[in-house]
Amino acid sequence: MPTSPSAARAAVAMLTVDEALDRILARVAPLEATPVGLLDALGAVLAEDATADRDVPPFRNSAMDGYAVRGADVRQDGATLRVVGTIAAGTAPDRAVAAGEAMRIMTGAPMPDGADTVVRVEDTDNGTEIVTINKATPPGVAVRQAGEDLRRGETVLARGTPLRQAEIGVLASIGRAKVSVVRRPNVAVLSTGDELVEVGEEPGPGQIRDTNRHSLAAAVRATGCAAFELGIARDSADDLRHALGNAAFGDLVVTSGGVSVGDHDHVKPVVNAMGQMDFWSIAIRPGRPLAFGELRTKRGAVPIFGLPGNPVSALLTFELFVRPALLKMAGRTKLHRPRVQARLLDRIEKPAGLRTFARGIHDAGAGTVRSTGPQGSGILRSMSLANCLIDLPESSSAADTGDAVTVLLTDLPEDH
Ligand code: AMP
Ligand code: MG
């Protein structure tokens, strides 16, 4: 049994970062599938197997502007052939090519029967009645075979594939004007605090601008999800209850502030009255207090994160805990940032016992990383200068210049 109050607290609530993340991920699930227009599928996860309705390309065609010929006729420089017609892209050849004949052909136009090779126009005299082939061309050159990209009936993209621009193109090529994707979460973002004013307002004595609502809504969007803003709730249970009533329209709720143990920290009791909130002390710096739970709504349970109020802590805990949850809800299976090793260029002190995420500048070419400077949890500049997080293990009390450290690459687009 723990003997002191602080030991008791530690025994009850102190979680590691990985334990907290496991608990969170165990409680969120992919959303349902929904049909969307092709372009709206960008960044979503495919919820069906996409099958080719026909061969792509659907017919044998020319890869060059030139002359469609029989390979046997162009084995030597200087061959001359009779030009028997022209085929543009979008038309069909009206005759075959026989021995000693050539047809002018444009890129993408169907190959005429009999021809198996295209001589580039640059390798000819560009003749209209008779063409001279200046350069011998090996048989089969510059012809694209039917189905060489995709075969009819083939599963071209499997369910679960994240859709980037290349996949949108592939889906277009198989005729999918609409596709079924995993719906992406719509996230409610709420700030709490009596001291907060809107961005456009002039802060009075003791007041500051609401930063978190904007950085967190932006973080939601950067994760490929939709954000809607619930404004600022004052530090009163009534105001918070009212704001969270609207949160129920979302698939997930993110609040910031009001989750410490101060006199005006109402998030936990209010959420407990409207659902259930766990309050965790995580062995992390920055961002130690984190609340996670669910609101009961008519539509079912809606997960809610109560993030700490300090602007760095709010964004950092979003990155580490909310982002993977949103990605899982959006149907992704790769939930975490790439991690690489890098050589540290400066010494970073940290509290032993807390896993610390220093904001860093990673130089991939040099394989080095340095901290962004002052790391206070209110110094948002430390994040704006950063392109990575330096992940320093719980046990250590410092990382030294020259040490190999683990770096999370946070600056990549969502497809990576
Ligand atoms: P709290 O967690 O509510 O005690 O807030 C911790 C610190 O973060 C305090 O200095 C707050 O003023 C600050 N803070 C809380 N919410 C915001 C916000 N939305 N934007 C900027 N700073 C905030
Ligand atoms: Mg507060």
Q: What does this 3D model show about the protein?
A:
- The chain has helices spanning 5-13, 17-26, 165-173, 212-222, 237-247, 267-274, 311-329, 381-384, and strands at residues 14-15, 33-37, 50-51, 61-62, 66-69, 80-87, 101-105, 117-120, 130-132, 143-144, 155-157, 178-182, 186-192, 196-197, 208-209, 226-233, 252-256, 275-282, 284-285, 289-297, 300-307, 339-344, 348-349, 355-363, 368-371, 388-392, 398-399, 404-409.
- It is an alpha/beta fold.
- The protein has eight helices and 28 strands.
- A seven-stranded mixed β-sheet has the order 1-18-20-21-17-13-16, with helices on both faces. A five-stranded mixed β-sheet has the order 8-5-7-6-9, with no helix packed on it. A five-stranded mixed β-barrel has the order 22-25-24-26-28.
- It is elongated and about 95 Å long.
- Adenosine monophosphate binds next to helix 4.
Please estimate the helix content.
10-25%
Low-confidence stretches: 1-5, 7-12
Roughly how many Å apart are the termini? 46 Å
Overall form? elongated
SS summary, helix count: 8
Global mean pLDDT: 93
Assess the beta-strand content as a share of residues. Answer: 25-35%
Radius of gyration: 31 Å
- As laid out across the biggest beta sheet, the strand order is 1-18-20-21-17-13-16
Small molecules bound: adenosine monophosphate, magnesium ion
DSSP strand tally: 28
Sheet having the most strands: 7 strands, mixed
Structural class: alpha/beta
